[in-house]
Amino acid sequence: MATIGAHGITARLPSGFEGRIFVRPASVGVTYPVGQFATFPIPDDIGDFGSGAVTVMGPSDVFATLFEYGPESVGSALFAQQGRPSALAASDFSPMTLRRGIPGQSGTQWFFTESGRPFSFYAVLGSHALRTALVPHVNTLLASLTLSPAVSDLPAARPRWN
Amino acid sequence: MVALVIVSTFVVLLLGILVAGLLRSHADILRALHDLGAGVGDPAVAPGVTTAVAAPVTLATPASAPALGAAPTVAGVTPTGDARAIAVDNTDDFTLLGFLSSGCTGCAAFWDALQEPGRLQLPDRTRVVIVTKGPDREVPSEVQARTTGQVPVVMSTDAWVDYQVPGSPFFVLVDGATGHKVGQGVASQVGQLAELVRRAEHDRGRAGGGRGRGEASPDGPAREAAADEVLAAAGIFPGDPSLYPRTLDDLFPHGGAVRAE
Description:
The complex is a heterodimer of chains A (about 160) and B (about 260).
Chain A (H helix, E strand, L loop, with lengths): L2 E4 L2 E4 L5 E6 L9 E6 L23 E7 L37 E9 L2 E9 L5 H14 E3 L15
Chain B lengths: L1 H34 L21 E3 L14 E4 L5 E4 L7 E6 L8 H7 L2 H4 L6 E6 L7 H6 L7 E3 L1 H6 L7 E6 L4 E6 L4 H18 L12 H14 L14 H4 L10
Parallel strand pairs in B: 4-5, 5-6
Antiparallel strand pairs in B: 1-8, 2-3, 4-7, 7-8
């Protein structure tokens, strides 16, 4: 079981998962950490929420993104929930919750604040019909994440673009 | 006088033994270099003529792949300080791990070639990953200077330990279908890597490998055409009412409808 960590996010990856935690270079403004995790090889040039990845995943695959928003989002209604969801149910996934609607797939998205940092957790199942079997993998991944308070290497601590 | 002769003879014998040892050591080094494909002065080869040299690349067949052991996930950081983990057992395809160093002269050609898959002429869908030692043993900025962004570069000393890498350059080929190493060793020429992968692919083809994860979904027009073909085969043509669901129950008629978020 591999463990990766950067930018105040640590993931103890479940078997079969790979992942990356990165901060996208900002041409303008400030960018924040993104964690991407999948049960299939993650292409290098995909969007934050998996565009370019969800089209190559198989029916038995899972893709998930942990996306951090700026500190100005803390305290807003969207991020009012404290802490990540403890366990997702199969009924939490819907074909209507996909950033890009791909027949057969389904997704879920949650907004929350943890360790003083606002996050969105977005997960895609390769097959909605297999959701009962796939959701436990998402829950294992979710439970493996450790989100630390903002640390010095986080963009929030960098000088703001002027 | 007799004592002087005896001492001189002893010294000459001692020096002779030392010279013989040095010559033998030199021969061992030359032989090792030759095995690595860097041999010089081979009288059988005309000056300026290069020939393919057998490199110590071992390649096991899929049937004996477990002998090389399971291939663990490569986890570490990128030269820019991000985190990256590459699982090599989550695909039916091959993954070629290139263990390189930023400062090794023998690695230079592989840094360039591995980041240009077209130049390497690897079989389609072969994933290439470059693994250097971690930031505790490598200078990230020097690794970054050699990185083009075309393939993942992971800095991980743990991976070098896990894969028992003796030195760089070193290569490991993993069959994602089994999660096992099917080849590993040192290559002296870029072309040997492609040959390594092709041989493994050929061997797996004969052995009927793969666990049927399926091909990647087509995208764009190819996807649309594939969908049209499947629908037509099922007797569903443009205008069919089933193509225009009004409720989720139309999509999941057997009680599988879920609440829209």
